[in-house]
Amino acid sequence: MKITTLMLSSAVALATLAGQAAQAKDWKTVTITLEGAYAPWNMTNADGTLGGFEPELAKVLCERAKVECKLVASDWDGMIPALNAGKFDIIMDALSITDERKQVIDFTIPYAATPAAFAVAKDSPLANAAGTGKTITMTPGQTGVAEIDALKTAFKGKTIGIQAATVYAKFVYDNFADIATIREYKTGADRDLDLQNGRIDLGFDDAVYFETAFEAANGALGFSGPQIAGPIWGVGEGLGVRKADTDLRDMFSKAIKSALDDGTVKTLSMKWFKTDVSPK
Amino acid sequence: MSTLQLLGFGSTGWGALLLVATLLTLAVTATALAIGAVLGTMVAAAKLSGNRLLWVLGHAYTTVFRGVPELLIIYLIYFGGSSALTSIGKAFGYEGFLGLPPFAAGAFAVGIISGAYQAEVYRGAYLAIAKGELEAASAIGMSARLRFRRIVMPQVLRLAIPGLGNVWQLSLKDSALISVTGLAELMRTSQVAAGSTRQYFLFFIAGGCLYLILTSLSDQVFNRAERRANRSMPSAAMGKA
């Protein structure tokens, strides 16, 4: 009798414990991961701290969501699986909100929307391809765009470098795999170095990222072809969260909305990008 | 920005971060060596025990961990280990993420490999002890334990020092592979600095120099230890000179 009671009560205690663990957390501290190597979105400072547009925006968002935030750097490839494994709670790394990614993780509303473009060495024969300086709008899966077809002719047989597992990688594979060789890199900076050294002919990435990379390259690199904007990159860049954490998603969506409404995002954007990246 | 500024200790210099990273490399290697010493001693004892089963186990350990790439072991322990721990946690009703921190996982991975090499070093050192000394110790009535403490242990340590110096250098270089776990040791910090400043040449050379400083300084430590251990062994000392 006694033993049965003991067993019963411990079973109840265990069930309660398990029930508590499965309940939603009451988010006091939130761990946010960034790459720390994608200036000016986010970068590693000489003292080892993280700086740039996103770390500063994160500070504002966490204050407004009334949570303590911890920023940790981790590699871009493997970030989404690591989020789902529970290594951190939020991805803030210029992560485009796309339908493919929505199948595995959830997103807040976007805090930025930026175009993408090709980069080349300034002295390359590919510099200033048709459409340079223009901005075109594309939708997902759109084909038969005159500007893209012109680039396909211009870039035939060339090598294009992309950062692996990005929306830009998918775009290049979808549109240029049949005419060019594609090379994947772990980080954007590695690709830029190869572009500068001439190992590859072209790079494709976020345009505001490239602006900063061009500065660092002392003018050795420049854009070629039009800037590509629009729904092809999803609705913009948002915070990635686990699907189960809807409360966390809503807290940060609210914080982003207020930072967009009062112009905080615009101010930070002008500081880091010299242009307004707030989603229109 | 000048080279001196980039490597210096000012607000734009990476010097302080590189120095911390060098110390972290040293700490992770020393921890790995200690873990390896425990594992290595056990494996060497197993291989020398004369017990068939223990010999097979010890032999399997040294064969596997000397024959599999270090990077694979690190991936296995850091990534594989955390998913194993998390699923064990789930079975007990804990929903969060469980995993070894990068330092522990890295030191453990390098320690396991270091243990395989250290086992061979200890085994070789034991076999180098003159048979007659062991027989003499038994003949005057020393128990196995006393014989181990007075005759075997001091000589194994003395004879193992040069081999341990090699294992230390191996582990020091293996520790660079831990950078894949995100631990900000010397390799990763050099990479981050190179990527952030786009001064690849400068920071990889700087990282290389710091590794060389670590290896040559530790070489001196092991040389000194060897000379000290051999101070009562004129023939061995002469061989060194």
Concise synopsis of the structure shown:
The complex is a heterodimer of chains A (280) and B (241). Chain A is of the alpha/beta class and 280 residues long.
Structure, explained:
The complex is a heterodimer of chains A (280) and B (241). Chain A has helices at 2-22, 53-65, 79-85, 99-102, 146-154, 167-176, 188-197, 207-216, 246-261, 264-273, and strands at 29-34, 37-38, 42-44, 50-51, 68-73, 90-91, 106-107, 116-121, 135-137, 159-163, 181-185, 202-206, 221-229, 240-241. Chain A is of the alpha/beta class and 280 residues long. Chain A has 2 domains: 28-113 and 235-273, 3-Layer(aba) Sandwich (D-Maltodextrin-Binding Protein, domain 2), CATH 3.40.190; 116-233, D-Maltodextrin-Binding Protein, domain 2 (3-Layer(aba) Sandwich). In chain A, β2 (37-38) and β3 (42-44) form a beta hairpin. The relative contact order of chain A is 0.19. Mean pLDDT of chain A is 90; it is low at 11-23. Classes of the chains: A alpha/beta (280), B mainly alpha (241). The A-B interface holds A 14, 17-18, 21-22, 36-37, 39, 43-48, 73-75, 85-87, 187, 189-190, 192-193, 216-217 and B 11-14, 16-17, 20, 82-83, 86, 93-97, 99, 182, 184, 189, 192-193, 195-196, 198, 200.
Sequence-ordered SSE layout with sheet pairings:
The complex is a heterodimer of chains A (280) and B (241).
Chain A: H1 2-22, E1 29-34, E2 37-38, E3 42-44, E4 50-51, H2 53-65, E5 68-73, H3 79-85, E6 90-91, H4 99-102, E7 106-107, E8 116-121, E9 135-137, H5 146-154, E10 159-163, H6 167-176, E11 181-185, H7 188-197, E12 202-206, H8 207-216, E13 221-229, E14 240-241, H9 246-261, H10 264-273
Parallel strand pairs in A: 1-5, 1-6, 9-13, 10-11, 10-12
Antiparallel strand pairs in A: 2-3, 3-4, 6-14, 7-14, 8-12, 8-13
Chain B: H1 3-7, H2 15-48, H3 52-67, H4 70-91, H5 102-127, H6 131-139, H7 144-174, H8 186-197, H9 200-229, H10 234-240
Helix pairs in contact in B: 2-3, 2-5, 2-7, 2-8, 3-5, 4-5, 5-7, 6-7, 7-9, 8-9
